[in-house]
Each structure stands twice: as structure tokens, then as C-alpha cells.
Amino acid sequence: MMLPTTSKDSEIKDGENRTLIKIVERPTFILKTREGESRAVSPSQRNGHKKDTDISSGAPTKIPDSIRMFSICPEMITCIKFMDENMQLCENPIDYLSDQQDFLVVGCLGAQGVGKSTIMSLLTSHYLSNIFQVQDLSHYESDATNCTTGIDFFISKNRVIYLDTQPILSGLVTDYSVCFDQKKATTDFVNTDSNLELQSLQFAAFLFSVCHVIIFVQDWFIDPNLVRFLQTAEMLKPSSTTIMDQDYVEYYPHVVFLHNKVELQDFMPTIIDQMKEFYNKIFSSSRLQTHSGIDMSHYSIENGLNLFLIPSRKEDMIFCENGKSLIDKLRTKIHGVTRNPMTPTVLTEKSWYHYVSKVMEAIKKSHLSSEYGRLMP
């Protein structure tokens, strides 16, 4: 509403001169709030008021997607078959995997009877006992076969995947018909021992591609053939990507040298130093990550050799640090290891499973693997 404009005349006397000044008053505006319209509220006040209302109303909060995914995944109570002895990937494990990226894969390699499954069962014993079947004398007498054929799979609540493999270079594994049907028809791979070694190398090369940590179990120090085996498996490992990317560094896992059933005298510092010197020289040019600080020290030593000794049961009672304590330490250090990306793209648990399938196919069709098998004596 606008009021009429009025004017005033005033005379101001300055000395003897008189000047007439005309003063015009400015218009005045009066604002009136419309009926039915509430007072304007700033966005921050409006949001804050809404937030307070939501909290006071007791509305249920949204559950994070990661927690929801874990609740959907069934919990495992024992290991299941991940890959059979003919290198055929099984489908059941994917039911236990989720679409989250924070996971760790631990594999185990070793010869017949060194205690691979025992070590894996001890590492998972804080969840359940005897998750991986352990071989004993009665098992040998009943059917004279391995407890573990192919690869067994178990995933823990904190998303650690354990892969227990059949023994490497084991004469008890005799069925290779599926893997080598075409090759057996030719003059190649006529030697059963050659087939045995090649299949073991393929299993090892496979684990080198899909695991963050490999536990290489031995029960004595040291078999030169096993050292040569690891070096050959590293050579046969397929590339983790087909894309030429200068910034990408080829993936290689952490390898832990674990000596099982160790006698008391082998814990002497001089003996341990000899072991370290041997491994440092043999794997000086290797791209396997053998110095990740996964050792028996109480504190992680940067660039320390991944060496662990587990005492035999008869020595367990008199040794200052028993086997259980060492297993707990091994588990803790494995869980805290750096998880380097296996591929240029970040993998989830489920996409890792699909990547596993591609790796296995690449190993089976590898020209380098075929040539190595053909040239074997």
C-alpha cells in the first residue's frame, strides 16, 4: 500500500542570504503477510527440522548394503569341493560369496603327508574344528588315496577364503583322463610321471594367480626338487591381464615357507639363519613375494623372510612357544598382509570366482605349459 507524497517548504537563514530548499519525502512501503501463508524457512532450518522429526518418530534406520549381503550369504560349517582332480571348477562355492571387495584368499601347497590339511584346519579352528579332513593311518589302510583331491574350499565369517589342494607330485593321484585326453592320444605325455608333475605345476600356477597368500608346507629342510617345482610354477603362471597397461604391475602372491613337524634343534638361531640364507639366495630373482614379514617374530619386520616353523607334537610341550601360539601368530600376520590387486580392475568375491574360471581355462590352453610338458623327460 503506497501513501500519498507530501512536500514541505522551509527557509534556512545563512547569514544574510536566504535560500529556499524544497524537501521531498521518499515513498513508504508497507508489506503485509498474506493470509494462510506461513513464514519462510531457510533450507538448512527446514532440513534440520525434518531430521529431528525423523529421529523423534523412531523410524527404522537403513541397514548398510555390506551387512545385508553378509546376512544373505549362508554360513559354512565344513569345506566343500572347489575344483575336482580333473581341474573342473565346481559351482557350489559361488552360493557362499558376496559382492563385496574386502576379502582374502589363502591357498596351501605341499607334498603328500606333510600336514597341509592339518595346518588349514588349525588356521580355521577358531571357527570350527576339523573343517578340512586330516589324513591318518586308517585312511591309508582303507583305500590308499588322498584325503584331499582337487581343491577344497571354505570361507570364514570375516571373509577369508581358504583353498586346500591335493598333494603335489603324489603318485596316489592317477586320474588325468579329462585333462589330458587329447594329449595322451599323441606321443606327448606318454610318461605318467610327466603327467603327474605337469598337473601339479598347473595346480600351483593356478594358486599363484588366484590367491593373496600361498602357504608352502614342508616337513623337512630341504628338498631341492620342491624348490625347482616352485620356480617352474612361477614360470608357468599365466598373465593376469591381456590389456597392455604400462602402469599395471603383474600380480604375484605372498609365499610363506612353513616347515611342519620341526624338531627342537631346528629352532636354534644358527639353523634358522641357515634356512633364511638358503631361501634368500634361491629366490633372490623371483617375483614371488617372499619377504612380507610373515615370520615368527612378535613384531612385523619390514622385508622379513616369510618363514614359519611349527614344532612336532612330541616337542610341543617342552618348547617355549607352543604350536597353538605359533598358529595364532601365523593367522594374525596372514590376515594383516597387504592385499595387492590381482587384476587391473577391483574384484569382488563373486567376480573373483569368475576370474578363477578364466585363469583355469588359460592354464589348460597355455602354449608354454604344453611345450614344457612336451619337453619333459
In short:
The protein contains 12 helices and 9 strands.
What report would you give on this structure?
The protein is of the alpha/beta class. The protein has one domain (79-375): Rossmann fold. The protein has twelve helices and nine strands. It has helices at residues 43-57, 65-72, 116-123, 137-143, 177-184, 192-210, 224-236, 269-282, 313-316, 323-335, 349-364, 367-375, and strands spanning 7-14, 17-24, 80-83, 104-110, 151-155, 160-165, 213-218, 254-262, 307-311. The strands form two sheets. The protein has a seven-stranded mixed sheet, sandwiched between helices. It has a two-stranded antiparallel sheet with strand order 1-2. The model is unreliable at 1-21, 41-63 and 174-190 (pLDDT under 50).
Please tell me how large the radius of gyration is.
Answer: 35 Å
Characterize the largest beta sheet: strand count, sense, and whether it forms a barrel.
Answer: 7 strands, mixed
Number of helices: 12
> How many domains make up the coordinates?
1
Tell me the quaternary state.
single chain
H/E element sequence:
EEHHEEHHEEHHEHEHEHHHH
How many runs of DSSP E, i.e. beta strands?
A: 9
If strands are numbered along the chain, what order do they take across the biggest sheet? 3-5-6-4-7-8-9
Helix content bin: 25-40%
Q: How far is the first residue's CA from the last residue's CA?
A: 108 Å
Low-confidence region ranges: 1-21, 41-63, 174-190
Q: Structural class of the secondary elements? A: alpha/beta
Q: Which of globular, elongated, flat, extended, rod-shaped describes the shape?
A: globular
Per CATH, what is the topology?
Rossmann fold
Strand content: 15-25%
CATH architecture heading: 3-Layer(aba) Sandwich
CATH superfamily: P-loop containing nucleotide triphosphate hydrolases
Class in CATH? Alpha Beta
Mean pLDDT over the full residue set: 78
